[in-house]
Amino acid sequence: MKVRAPGVVKLLGEHAVVYGKLSIAAAISLYATAEVERNSTGLVVDLPDIGIKGSMTRDELAALHRSYKSRTDINEFINSSGNVELELLPYFTVAAQLLGEHSIDPCGTAVIRSEIPIQKGNASSAACLTTFAVAMAKISNSSPDDAELIEAARAGEKIVHKNEGAGKIDISTSYYGGIVSFNGERGARREESAANIDILMIDTGPKRSTAEMVGIVSNLYKTERGRADVLFNRIDRLSATGLDALKANDLGMIGRCMYEDHAILSEMGVSSSGLDVAVELARRHGAYGAKLSGGGGGGLAIAIADDYTELRKELEHNGFESVLARISPTGAKDMVG
Predict the structure, then answer these.
(1) Mean of the pLDDT values across residues 67-78?
(2) CB count, 10 Å around CB of 146?
(3) Are residues 99 and 242 in the same domain?
(4) Which of 67, 106, 175, 272 is the most core-located residue (most Cβ within 10 A)?
(5) CA 166, CA 77: separation in Å to the nearest integer?
(6) What is the pLDDT of residue 235?
(7) If 0-12 CB within 10 Å is exposed, 13-18 middle and 19+ buried, where does residue 22 land?
């Protein structure tokens, strides 16, 4: 059994989404792959990209599920699982959820590989966990619904980011593919879109942790609530406008929303000098739009344009590497074979 899951970029709305506002993400044509074969002894998880492999019995996974269910918070659960390698714990926890909540037999050998850059803002961990969750369900001939599989994969993403709220949009986007919108009131929704976009992903260098960036925004919210609400509401309107533009394939409007969104995120303190330079280079070389994507503080910027030739030359001249990707119209849900 082999399943693929795409990486993710945030087109609009990051950080504000934590406060209930609309966010828009796109699946991209870089993929994580899980290959699973049945065995009768337990679960083996092999992560050859980082050289880590481990196993748990069915009884150990059942105990892990009980521990996860009784946790007071995710950090307490992580600390109580100290005998499990941290890189493997997310996968074992996903399998434990599938076993405990949906009676899915966890016995198998799972090899997870990824071509998605790690810690660059492309949701590499979300894609790996999504493909793993779907593969485990499919190899067992079980059929949890979409929401149940997404929630199982999110259990692992919470561990990766040490945050109970992690993975809501990344996991959903990697699972469904295409364009996905999310807000706190109605959750994730796969959107029908006419947009035919190549997205340039720009590596602006090392990034600060997402947790640190979330903390900066949280501090703004606590100390300047009125200002924060104004900024969040502006981002919310940009996300709504951008979503309409995506549905109409209006790249000019999408781009204008991206530039303005980046300016607000920069005002909030979650950009970086490298991100700002990359966005400005995109503006000077004719891109419809550009912005940071993800947590910020360095790492990934994205741009959309008709022709990236001159922009990529200028980015390289300024020390930035870039990769061109398409929106992946399908996600792990439909990439089984």
Answers:
(1) 94
(2) 13
(3) no
(4) 175
(5) 15
(6) 98
(7) buried
For 282-302, what is the mean pLDDT?
95
Beta strands in 192-304 (DSSP E): 198-203, 289-292, 300-304
Would the pLDDT of 1 be above 90? no
Cβ-contact 152, 101 below 8 angstroms: yes
Whether 306 has a pLDDT exceeding 90, the answer reads: yes
| 111 and 202 part of one domain | no
Residues constituting the chain: 337
Structural domain including 308 reads 198-326
3-class secondary-structure state, position 335: coil
d(CA 29, CA 230): 35
For 6, list phi and psi in degrees, rounded to 5. Answer: -80, 155
Contacts of residue 39, Cβ cutoff 8 Å, sequence gap at least 6: 107, 108, 109
Q: Give the N- to C-terminal CA distance of the chain in Å, as an integer.
A: 6
pLDDT of 321 reads 95
Q: Per residue in 30-64, pLDDT tens?
A: 999 999 999 888 999 999 999 999 999 999 999 99
Tell me how far apart the alpha carbons of residues 159 and 166 are, in angstroms, rounded to a whole number: 9
91 and 218: one domain?
no
Confidence at 191, pLDDT banded by 50, 70, 90? very high
Whether the pLDDT of residue 234 is over 90: the answer is yes
**Confidence label for 140 from pLDDT (cuts 50, 70 and 90):** confident
Four-point Cα dihedral 327, 328, 332, 337, nearest 10:
-170
Token readout for 146 is: 């979409």
Residues 92 and 156 in one domain: yes
Alpha-carbon gap, residue 168 to 171, rounded angstroms: 6
- DSSP class of residue 31 equals E
108-114 vs 43-47, strand pairing mode: parallel
